Amino acid sequence: MRMNEGVEWALHSCLNLGWLGPERAVTAGRLAAFYGLPPAYLNKQLQALARAGILTSTSGPRGGFRLARDLDAITLLDVVVAIEGPDEAFRCTQILRQGPGGDPAADYLKLCVISQAMGRADLAWRRELAGQTLADIRATVERGYPDTPERTREWFATVAG
Amino acid sequence: MRMNEGVEWALHSCLNLGWLGPERAVTAGRLAAFYGLPPAYLNKQLQALARAGILTSTSGPRGGFRLARDLDAITLLDVVVAIEGPDEAFRCTQILRQGPGGDPAADYLKLCVISQAMGRADLAWRRELAGQTLADIRATVERGYPDTPERTREWFATVAG
DNA sequence: GGTTCTTTACTCGGATATCGGCTGTCCGAGTGTCCTCGG
DNA sequence: CCGAGGACACTCGGACAGCCGATATCCGAGTAAAGAACC
Lengths: 161, 161
Description:
Helix content of chain A: 55-70%
CATH architecture of the domain at 6-87 and 133-158 in chain A: Orthogonal Bundle
Oligomer: homodimer
Strand order of the largest sheet of chain A: 1-2
């Protein structure tokens, strides 16, 4: 049960986009170079964010990605779902159907007590993720490392891309 | 981010072992036949439960698996960790080290705000899993389906294995 | 000089290889049982 | 009849393939900008 590595990249990239502001679009290559990530693969993740409506993408020269809305309207869950998909980790395969006394027509996703319990745990996880926005993260970072926004802007302004 | 299918099998098998009682050991083949699962693969999962101290295993004729302790001392988290391993789903790769201003010696597992936030979500998930024992599950099942214990015992007693 | 058209270079987007881990299977080590043989 | 020894069959345990999804890469469609040509 390993989460897609792109989730981490996407979260950090969204934060960076937040510090850079929505004026300019930033290419996947620039965002990848910031952390030394494979550009084409990060591009794939950013595409997923665009499909989910978290980013907007523009092609051509001076194109790239920018935030579709402010960071306080983007939760951690939004990003995770955009990359990982909406399915929960535990998937009940309804093996009770195969057992003695099992009803092939029953919906054990709802009936199976184990499925319910695992669903509650998944819900607690999602609730925690949905309770934190990227603006919260940004605020915490800026409180602990006040020069991060300026350094980030500087890097994207000076380093050739 | 898909959970190992063996977790579902392990949970259901532990419940069945709880209904059958600790007097007799039950073979992986019998437990697998109950749901029509591949016997050798279920055996692999049960081995993991034995390594984790949830089950005890005995070889030879009249051997098999039995519960190492009562169901009220086995949480859902115990079973999940036994099958999936102790690592959490989100693994911070500390990409901040590679970025400008990154400290190669810093422990970003603790410092990175994103890592902290994802860790909190994982903790909420684990807390929910640890808060429910298999005895709770058993009680809920018996409340909704009172004849399940007897039917299960009957099946294991009558069906040849 | 201004406007329009063409060329150009750049970026996203999806299609295409490659790799690791879950899924599934098989055979050997160990062990309890049953039978046989001897006392 | 009773006990000891041995053969046997059964089960776990770990070692060995197969397959699917994540990882990583590449090339084409579309586009905005820059330059050239024309008015």
